[in-house]
Amino acid sequence: MNWQNIYRGALMGVSNIIPGVSAGTIALVLGIYDRLISSISDFFSKRYKEALPFLLPLGIGVVGGILIFGRLIGWLLAEHAVPTQFFFLGLIIGVIPLIFKEGEMRTAFRPAHFLLTVTVAVMLALLAVFLPEEGARSTFILTAASGVWLFVAGAAASVSLLLPGISGAIVLILFGVYEPAIHALNTLNLPVIFILVFGIALGFILSSKLIRYVLHTYPYATYAVILGLLAGSLFHVYPGIDAERSTLILSAFTLAGGFFLAFKTGGGSADKKERVS
């Protein structure tokens, strides 16, 4: 068992709570993205025993990160929103050089790849303008229809969890179930949690195999899309500039800290060189 994956999973779990930050981005920062996609795909095949030592500790960390740090992240976003968002902004910016290197952008990218990157970035950035209001948890009632909607939202969110740049939280907001989902986690509303988890599990099965296929078949186009998603997500995470001097100074430190952590971790990890097999 790779027990180091518990802390990696915890970081990925925390990222799922924050609109604009993707678990896939955190996997890139940690240098385990290719291995993650490969292992999830293998887990739902005859090679599940090979994937289990990697995924089990990671899954424990993800669940633990959500349950243990959910309230802490909620407090940070409520009391210190701007510096916290700048930290995650630094994480995203810091992983972009890794994508340049992994995607061999200087040598392999063609004009069509750069156009794809810009198109994806613009489309995702526009969501920051047209994103609907979150569904109010007080008005959410679990019925057959809303249960199906939760299931579909979970399946759609699972795809985004595996794609760097677009967060599961944003997808849940788009479906109008982000607030009910957070409320269910905080109050341990098991029916709502079960429906979401079931949808996420099914989405994982389908999306992991699709992402693995495109990474194999269209690697440069895939990295072009990933880079576009990362660039577009900056518009969702950027909180604006606070006028208070103390907040500006703290935000500068958290931005630099996030960038340094992503750049050093992603650039120095041996795992990042592992390709999908």
Structural summary, described in words:
- The protein has 277 residues and is an all-alpha fold.
- It has one domain.
- Helices cover 78% and strands 0% of the residues.
- The protein has 13 helices and no strands.
- It has helices at 5-15, 23-30, 33-43, 48-79, 81-102, 105-108, 111-130, 144-162, 168-174, 178-187, 190-217, 219-237, 245-268.
- The longest helix is centred in the N-terminal third of the chain and has 32 residues, at 48-79.
- It comes from Salisediminibacterium halotolerans.
Structural class: mainly alpha
Mean pLDDT figure: 79
The helix/strand series, from N terminus to C terminus, equals HHHHHHHHHHHHH
Task: Give a quick account of the main beta sheet: strands, pairing sense, barrel closure.
Answer: none
Number of helices: 13
Radius of gyration: 18 Å
Unreliable stretches: 268-277
Keywords: Membrane, Transmembrane, Transmembrane helix
Protein name: Membrane protein
InterPro entries: VCA0040-like (IPR007163)
Organism: Salisediminibacterium halotolerans
